[in-house]
Design a protein that fits this description.
Elements: H1 2-24, H2 29-41, H3 45-54, H4 59-67, H5 73-80, H6 86-92, H7 97-105, E1 111-119, H8 122-134, E2 139-144, H9 151-165, E3 169-175, H10 184-192, E4 196-200, E5 221-225, E6 229-233, E7 251-252, E8 255-259, H11 263-278, H12 285-289, E9 302-309, H13 317-328, E10 332-336, H14 344-355, E11 359-365, H15 371-387, E12 390-394, E13 397-398, E14 402-405, E15 409-413, H16 419-424, E16 427-433, H17 435-449, E17 452-455, H18 457-461, H19 465-475
Parallel strand pairs: 2-3, 3-4, 7-13, 10-11, 11-12
Antiparallel strand pairs: 1-8, 1-9, 2-5, 5-6, 6-8, 9-16, 10-14, 12-17, 14-15, 15-16
Length: 481
């Protein structure tokens, strides 16, 4: 009798979860199918997995995030005085007007006259960042997915503590899951020095292993110093990102330092997250009046847009902007990503580009950090090799998240090419419209090719039957990785 009641409970729970996925969370059909499969083949345990990894953000959380974003007519007018106008789009970016307009519709303003420096290695980025932090006069706003209590983490934390004691306004956000291994006492040092620290999606009752939002991670890496210098990209604050973990060495990544109007949207991005976490009530104009958006030095000539996305929005802004970039391509697309698990829309865009005669290159690591995800990545890459894509396996761990399109468009950010980054994580990426910067990064890409294994059709045919079997099994669940 007990078994019957357990079976009825099992069927009822699965039915309720199905109703929730379809009508309340409005998940994609492919995601619903993946979770339904798990719930069927893993009775009871599948229900627990769904609660931890599958349930969407509640309507209450989504509304709270939206409510704390920096929207107000006076604020918007003050910011837009320094930013773009419709005439600037059409007169100066006629060839790319549709892409600029697409990103603008997703909330990304066009920022002109920026100076940009690209970093390819963790040590170079950290050295430059610490120099800028040391020179901070008013404010440091920082958020990182991973900020570890190790050699490089201590080095950066020491500077933050020092600046807080000097009276600089230091605000810091760390992701609860990404920084799981860093003890809270590590961050309390900054609090004791006068800085402010916030944990993104903190766990239930402050028990770090009990977090019902662990599937939704703030994957951003943003630093804004005095409202004038901004950093973002793939490099976290952790020793392995500096190439100190032999198993994943050399660690090749990409990060950018921005001066100019492009710092504004990075500041916006940080403050939106800060206002949500801390429930800050200041009117938006407060941040302009207190120096967080100073009139910048317009020393550069690079135009850019910062695009963000997250599970709080039904629109996957970064993914859709990437698709627009790809479908606009006329000559060449060069991609770098640690994980290549495209959904059908992204894969279709690449297939259309190939059919249109566009050359496509994809570079991924040869040394994986997550074996099962790597198997799925290779499974998708095999399909695209058959279609004519050139695939390169970097001899190390490639953590770079970049897309080059033709001769004048470059994307550098935090977003991987998989469902997690597109739909589950809070991400940012920067679109650069510049022939010089794109040419510079193309040179880096060609240099990376020299350190790669070229993966042709013969490479994939050599895979063992067991590997191909595992690839097929794990690919069934690629929508929920």
């Amino acid at each position: 009798m007990l078994g019957l009641w357990l079976f009825i409970a099992y069927i009822s729970l699965n039915f309720l979860l199905f109703i929730s996925m379809v009508f309340l969370e409005r998940k994609k059909l492919s995601t619903v199918i993946s979770w339904t499969t798990i719930l069927t083949i893993l009775p009871y345990f599948g229900f627990v997995l769904y609660l931890v990894f599958g349930s969407g953000l509640s309507i209450r959380v989504r509304r709270m995030i939206t409510r704390h974003k920096l929207y107000e007519s006076g604020y918007d007018e003050a910011i837009n005085d320094y930013l773009m106008s419709d005439n600037q789009i059409w007169n100066e970016f006629k060839d790319d007007a549709s892409l600029v307009s697409c990103a603008y519709k997703y909330g990304s303003v066009l920022c002109l006259n920026n100076k940009v420096k690209i970093f390819l290695w963790g040590k170079d980025k950290i050295d430059a960042l610490i120099t800028d932090l040391e020179n901070a006069k008013q404010s440091i706003n920082m958020e990182y997915y991973i900020f570890e209590d190790d050699e490089v983490g201590k080095r950066v934390m020491n500077v933050l503590v020092k600046k807080a004691r000097e009276g600089v306004k230091v605000r810091f956000i760390y992701d609860s899951i990404g920084s799981l291994h860093a003890p809270r006492r590590f961050f309390r040092r900054l609090k004791k020095a006068g800085g402010e620290v916030a944990e993104f999606f903190p766990p239930f009752a402050h028990i770090r292993l009990i977090n019902l939002k662990l599937n939704y991670r703030n994957h951003k890496k943003i630093v804004v110093i005095d409202g004038k210098i901004g950093y973002t990209g793939g490099i976290n604050i952790r020793d392995d990102h500096m190439g100190k973990k032999k198993k994943l060495s050399p660690w090749r990544d990409t990060h950018v330092r921005i001066e100019g109007l492009g710092v504004y949207p990075l500041q916006n991005c940080f403050l939106n997250d800060w206002r949500y976490i801390r429930k800050e009530k200041y009117a938006p104009l407060y941040y302009i009046e207190n120096g967080y958006f100073p009139i910048p030095d317009l020393a550069g000539n690079i135009a850019l847009q910062v695009v963000t996305s997250g599970p709080d929005s039904p629109i996957q802004g970064i993914k859709e902007t990437f698709i627009k970039m790809i479908t606009n391509a006329e000559k060449e697309i060069c991609i770098q990503t640690p994980y290549f698990i495209p959904d059908e829309a992204f894969a279709t865009a690449l297939r259309i580009a190939l059919a249109s005669g566009v050359k496509v290159k994809i570079m991924v690591p040869r040394k994986p950090d997550h074996r099962t995800v790597y198997w799925v990545t290779l499974s998708y890459l095999k399909e695209f090799v058959d279609l004519g894509v050139e695939v390169y396996l970097y001899n190390g761990f490639l953590h770079s998240k970049t897309i080059i399109v033709d001769d004048n468009k470059l994307s550098i950010g935090t977003c991987n090419l998989d469902n997690r980054s597109f739909g589950l994580n809070f991400e940012d990426t920067v679109l650069f419209y510049s022939k010089d910067l794109t040419s510079e990064y193309k040179g880096y890409y060609k240099e990376d090719e020299k350190h790669c294994l070229y993966a042709d059709k013969a490479f994939f045919k050599r895979k063992r039957p067991l590997t191909r079997f595992l690839q097929a099994i794990f690919r069934l669940f690629s929508e929920i990785f």
